[in-house]
Amino acid sequence: MNNNTKKILIIGGVAGGATAAARMRRLDEKAEITVLEKGPYVSFANCGLPYFISGDIKRRSNLLLQTPEGFFSRYRVNVKTNSEAVEIQRDKKTVVVKTKSGEELLPYDKLILAQGGSPIVPPLPGIASGHVFKLWTIPDMDRIHKFIEEKKPAKAVVVGGGFIGLEMAEALHARGIEVTVVEQAPQVMILMDPEFGAMIKSGLEEKGIIVKTNAGLSSVSEKNVALSDGTTVEADMVLLSIGVRPELTLAKSAGLEIGPSGGLIVDETMRTNDPDIFAAGDMVEIVNKIHGRKVRIPLAGPANRQGRIAGTNALGGKMKYNGALGTSVVKIFGYTAASTGLSEKAAREAGFGTGVSYVFKDNHVTYYPGGKPLSLKIVYDNKTGRLLGGQAFGESGVEKRIDVLATALHGKMTLEDLSELDLAYAPPYNSANDPVNMASFIGMNHISGYSPLKTPAEVLAAQKREDSIILDVRTVGEQGKAPLEDVLHIPADELRDRLEEIPKDKTIYLLSKDGFLGHTSLQILKAEGFSEVFNIAGGYSAARWFDGWNFSN
After folding, report:
1. How far apart, in whole angstroms, are the C-alpha atoms of residue 181 and residue 407?
2. What is the SS3 assignment for 113?
3. Is 329 within a domain?
4. Is 47 a catalytic residue?
5. Do the Cβ atoms of 52 and 60 come closer than 8 Å?
6. Are 402 and 338 in contact (CB under 8 A)?
């Protein structure tokens, strides 16, 4: 072998690690590339595991994207499974590896860490029982599948209402198991705003999933779990999906720097504080593209791109990783929930003067059959009009809109830019003005003062004062289906003829079905000399998901 051959060692063979290995081989045919994987499998479809449990993916082999033999055959990459790196000797540029046959030392010129994370397992009574599971690897999946096949559990508790928890709730339901989701936070999908958490909860409950929020796991026994709210839930099996902790034991022991977000520090080239060690994936902290702060974004898309860049730069390249938006999507039975960028809550916490707008409409024109309701929210900077984030929920067209918003965020686009987007339209697919366009119109009208908005939460807070009223301009039919007490109800079509009923000495908040008639009514009132008038963003369609809005429906 040529003494100038570069020795590349990659620790971690899933997502970022596998991508780095393949990329490096394409760049350098002569490099000596070795991948160490602690588990028995390399390059498997981690995100697909719940769908094998559900039966959507029929063949287990479809999840095995590559084998050690296949990696060597295609890329001449030496993959060592069941091989755990236990020490990095930075001064000697070697790694101590524990295998079934003992320890060995592997040298490197460049080292890439792609160890990802590991599920959090809290030290609670009964947590080590045989009917308690986590889902992170192929063996985890196999154990769950075998348990269901052999034990035929009737009831399951899923602890955690994030991505894996909700996917597994659906998967277990598909296997005929009664499922309860337990979430310690006030809502499921905590990264989204509360109203979207409520929509997701409703979608789960439609299918018979029981959802308990504000309740954490306290202990596990043979046939039930005890919760922090003092209740118990029957459970023949328990699935833990509480969160993921970055795998940093090896990095810390080697003296690599850890950041304030709890991830391994890397620069824009994915290099650690050791010039010969790079890192990628769930274990690193990266820049959030919106507010510029360092965060952890443990998602497959960013991990793969980071692996590609780390591999390139370990061979002397100059690629840069400029951060991520955290764009994500989850299937919940027939619904889809997706988000990108900052939520309203995150934008406010980041110090932005935050505005929001909602659009509630079908995913395509109403006159074409088969339309499905779509809920879309965008978050923007009130001062500059810059888009900050977006969330959506519905049965069809959700991920399409979020991908448009993710692209707009990448380009630092404003509401005005969004309003000018030329998006594909035909009756089976869209409306002439896409929901993204319409949401931008609403935001622009707010910023300009033409049609100022207040969020449902802001109106709830203002209702504690006596100098404001809610003017309900919904139709008689709309108001009858979901009446609200202590409001003045004047349908929008009667507004011009009943102006004398509206007090001019109070701040007026207009409640319509979805915000549209509120906007129209606001223009009528402004023309008649009413000055303190605000449209409730999203109207009833948004407010119904907020605690405190007591619609009788």
Report:
1. 33
2. strand
3. no
4. yes
5. yes
6. yes
Which H, E and C letters describe 520-549, residue by residue?
HHHHHHHHCCCCCEEEECCHHHHHCCCCCC
Backbone torsion region of residue 238, taken as left when φ is above 0, otherwise alpha when ψ lies between -120 and 50, otherwise beta: beta
What CATH number is associated with residue 398?
A: 3.30.390.30
**Count of domains in the chain?**
4
Q: How buried is 383 (Cβ within 10 angstroms: 0-12 exposed, 13-18 middle, 19+ buried)?
A: exposed
List C-alpha distances in Å: 205 to 178, 200, 211, 237, 541: 12, 9, 7, 20, 19
- Give domain status of residue 321, yes or no: no
Which domain range does residue 440 map to? 334-448
CATH code: domain of residue 197: 3.50.50.60
Q: How far apart are CA 257 and CA 88, in angstroms?
A: 14
**430, two tokens:** 């869209």
Q: What are phi and psi of 511, to 5 degrees?
A: -110, 115
Q: How far apart are CA 494 and CA 498, in angstroms?
A: 6
Element housing 163 (H / E): helix 163-174
Q: Which residues pair with 232 in a beta bridge?
A: 226
* Residues 338 and 443 grouped into a single domain: yes
Q: Are residues 310 and 409 in the same domain?
A: no
Considering the domain architecture, whether residues 364 and 406 belong to the same structural domain is answered as yes
**Minimal CA–CA distance to 25: which of 311, 250, 297, 391?**
311
Is-above-0.90 flag for pTM?
yes
- Averages of pLDDT over runs of 10 residues in the chain (553 residues) are 79 93 96 95 91 96 91 94 97 96 96 95 96 96 97 98 96 98 97 97 97 97 96 97 94 97 97 98 96 94 96 97 96 97 97 97 94 97 98 97 98 98 96 97 98 96 84 97 94 97 95 97 96 96 95 83
Of 27, 45, 47, 64, which is the active-site residue?
47
Q: At what angle do helices 398-410 and 435-448 cross, to 10 degrees?
A: 50
